[in-house]
Specification:
alpha/beta, Rossmann fold, 3 domains, seven-stranded parallel β-sheet, six-stranded parallel β-sheet, disordered N terminus, ATP binding, SNF2/RAD54-like_C, SNF2_N, SNF2-like_sf
């Protein structure tokens, strides 16, 4: 008897009857141990989809009655005459109408036997009517969407949020684990069955030569499949996901808090499970069928992602990968950044190691944070004094290099560098002028890179010449076919003409998949002038001066620059904007930067009647407008639901003050999702304030925010202003002193 080291040692038995072929077949205890290990792995793999199925069933048990109620409400408003349209006029409705059936809902809610009792309604008519009503009900169910009102929770919405919480908390790993479990089971199940005889010496003695060969091959296959699963850490993934899905339900308070923090993920999951969502053509940017089919055929690998994508976002990432050199021009707030990261993550999962992102300086920190938060990819900021060393590190070790338009031309040329798996250019309209230095630098990289993704929120159909300039860098052969007449013919005509290289979706197109509130933290890095003003404020120990130091030098203010970009992007999409600040001085600075067309500012010195007049005038504007407001004056009492973009110039000491201000726009009557952008400066009072407030007990904060007392008297539940200010000033003075002492 001989032993080999493979798979912990396998025993081969040789007999005179079966000769040398049998002696090479691994059998015995080692094989039984391998097969037992494979069975345990299969058992855990089978458990994952079963556990997810149970969690989904728990959601459906609450969701289905809600959807049925919404469908019945819609059907009750549809006249019974619509049944004729479905049957192309073949259905006779006279008897039904005479019996008092006036709506499709009444027919749909009546049984076949009851309909047949109506004089003049035979079996054929009853069946036709019910089938037609069922078709309409099915179509209605595809269009209704469930909205969860966080300000008026009832038993049903609470049960739904609690059920959804289990799946949301388990995260993107659930989908990854289910897919991996399915593929592993499909591969391993037949191998284990075929390898069964090799686990017994006796069975192998009485097995024919071909069967022994198949068993030996199957054992090798099992060993390889198990080893690969262990290498990919699938046993740990399956165990963790099952544990997450089997946890006891969260308390209602915990689930509601999480819903407020991550409503996008809840609504994305809700749309998936309910089958509701935007029209597919709209979600796919009205692309021609041939291109859309090609994009759909590409399977997106999310192994390196840490976030679940909405349907239109996954399509956008696949579009970038399938078409290779494209512009994604989605309206602001639809997640262009995460679509780009998903495309990078897919390529990383398939072996690419280097990627390059070029963006304005104002969003470089956001890109770095998003890459790290949304994926497992390594983000390497390449800017400032350390850019040369950071760039060398990226070339050596890979990852996503994130640099600015101004820094790109200072880096080693594209010809001397590693070729990235993809080049991403954010705010791509910045390179519309081919003669500009930044455009030439981008073009130099784009010429050598196979995959290039331009991102811009500017609707290109309004700027055909700009689009033609961008297309020349991506698809020169397409540029001559783009003319001004396409833009003049309307957005859909333009998109179809440039479909191979352009994808744009508007909020209205994908509204069903969007949460009611999108919150984005816009992290900026203080410039030299900002930083000097901030140091002086810290040295003087003046907390409020520290909070507004980022606007002390308007022409060099990173926050003000980002604010103007957000307003410009909202202007391109025709969206109204409200800008809130605690400080009149900051609002005055913002007003000077935006010009005389901005309404306001609303402040404590403005009489209440005049405040309402300003809000009414702002709301009456057709299209884009900007309203400036001191957060204490505009944050309560006024309704600003005409606005769909809210910009907070700085974080507030009282979280309830921010909540109330956002609620002025995000309230009943708002027909578009509300985007909230908080302007924050790294290594400053903003970061300390956010960190300190985050340490508060989230559940206590949630209870307080939902109480009537908190809504009317925020001071009753917020931390002491003086205590918080003192702690932050002292911490910042120590930090800056330490920084000054370092070489």
């Amino acid at each position: 008897m001989r032993q080999s080291g493979a798979a912990g040692g396998s025993t081969a038995v040789g007999t005179r009857a079966h000769g040398a072929a049998a002696s090479r077949v691994p059998t015995g205890g080692a094989v039984r141990e391998l097969l037992a290990r494979a069975e345990r792995l299969l058992e855990s793999a089978r458990a994952v989809p079963a556990d997810r199925g149970n969690a989904v069933d728990a959601v459906r048990s609450v969701l289905d009655p809600v959807l049925d109620s919404l469908v019945n409400r819609e059907l009750a408003a549809i006249p019974v005459s619509r049944l004729k349209d479905v049957t192309e006029g073949r259905l006779r409705l006279g008897a039904l109408e005479q019996a008092g059936f006036g709506t499709v809902g009444q027919v749909h809610g009546t049984g076949r036997y009851e309909l047949r009792q109506i004089p003049g309604v035979g079996a054929h008519t009853a069946d036709q009517a019910l089938a037609a009503a069922g078709q309409i009900a099915h179509a209605v169910r595809d269009t209704v969407s469930v909205r969860i009102d966080v300000d008026a929770p009832d038993d049903t919405s609470t049960a739904l949020v609690v059920a959804l919480h289990r799946l949301v908390e388990a995260g993107a790993d659930v989908r990854r684990a289910v897919d991996a479990a399915r593929r592993l089971s499909e591969r391993l199940d037949p191998l284990v069955a075929a390898a069964g005889p090799a686990g017994s010496r006796l069975r192998m003695l009485f097995t024919g030569r071909e069967a022994r060969a198949r068993a030996r091959e199957a054992v090798d296959g099992v060993r390889a499949a198990v080893a690969e699963a262990v290498e990919r850490e699938l046993p740990v993934l399956f165990a963790q996901v099952s544990a997450d899905l089997l946890r006891a339900p969260a308390s209602s308070a915990e689930a509601w808090v999480d819903f407020e923090l991550r409503s996008a993920e809840y609504y994305s999951l809700l749309a998936e499970l309910s089958g509701s969502g935007p029209d597919r053509d709209a979600a796919e940017g009205f692309l021609p069928a041939g291109i859309a089919d090609r994009v759909r055929a590409l399977r997106l690998d999310d192994t390196c992602l840490r976030v679940s994508l909405r349907g239109y976002q996954a399509f956008g990432a696949r579009f970038a990968l399938a078409q290779k050199r494209v512009v994604i021009g989605d309206e602001m707030g639809l997640g262009k950044t995460v679509q780009a990261i998903a495309a990078l993550a897919h390529l990383a999962a398939h072996g690419e190691s280097h990627f390059l992102v070029v963006c304005p300086a104002s969003v470089l920190i956001n890109w770095t944070r998003e890459i790290r938060a949304r994926s497992t990819l390594r983000a390497v900021p390449v800017h400032g004094a350390e850019r040369t060393g950071a760039f060398a590190d990226w070339r050596e070790n890979g990852g996503v290099a994130v640099t600015t338009f101004d820094a790109l031309h200072l880096l080693p040329g594209a010809a001397d560098s590693v070729r990235p798996g993809m080049l991403v250019v954010d705010e791509a309209h910045f390179v519309k002028n081919p003669a500009a230095r930044r455009s030439r630098a981008v073009a130099g990289w784009a010429e050598r890179v196979e995959r290039v993704l331009f991102l811009t929120g500017t609707p290109m159909e309004n700027r055909v010449e700009e689009f033609r300039s961008l297309v020349r860098q991506l698809r020169p052969e397409l540029a001559p076919s783009v003319s001004g007449t396409h833009g003049a013919a309307g957005s859909r005509a333009f998109r179809r003409a440039v479909a191979p290289a352009y994808l744009r979706r508007n909020q209205a197109d994908v509204l069903a998949e969007l949460p009611a509130l999108v919150q984005v933290d816009e992290w900026e890095e203080l410039g030299a002038e900002d930083r000097e003003a901030y140091r002086e404020a810290v040295a003087s120990g003046r907390f409020q001066r520290m909070r507004r130091a980022a606007y002390a030098v308007p022409e060099a203010s990173a926050k003000l620059g980002r604010l103007r970009e957000l307003v410009d992007e909202a202007s391109e999409s025709g969206l109204k904007v409200v800008v809130f600040s605690y400080f009149r001085e900051v609002l005055a600075t913002v007003g000077e930067a935006l010009g005389p067309d901005a309404f306001g500012p609303l402040s404590g010195s403005v009489a209440p009647a005049r405040r309402q007049e300003l809000v009414d005038a702002f709301s009456a504007v057709d299209g884009h407008a900007v309203l400036l407001s001191q957060i204490q004056a505009g944050g309560t009492g006024l309704n600003m639901q005409a606005a769909s973009v809210v910009i907070l110039c700085e974080p507030q000491i009282k979280p309830t003050l921010e909540h109330q201000a956002v609620a002025r726009a995000h309230r009943m009557g708002q027909v578009r999702p509300v985007q909230v952008h908080r302007l924050l400066a790294t290594d400053s009072v903003d970061q300390r304030l956010v960190e300190l407030l985050a340490r508060k007990d989230r559940l206590f904060d949630a209870y307080a925010r939902r109480s009537d007392l908190a809504e009317t008297t925020p001071d009753a539940v917020d931390v002491s202003d003086a205590e918080l200010a003192r702690a932050i000033v002292e911490e910042e003075q120590r930090r800056l002193a330490d920084d000054a002492g370092r070489p």
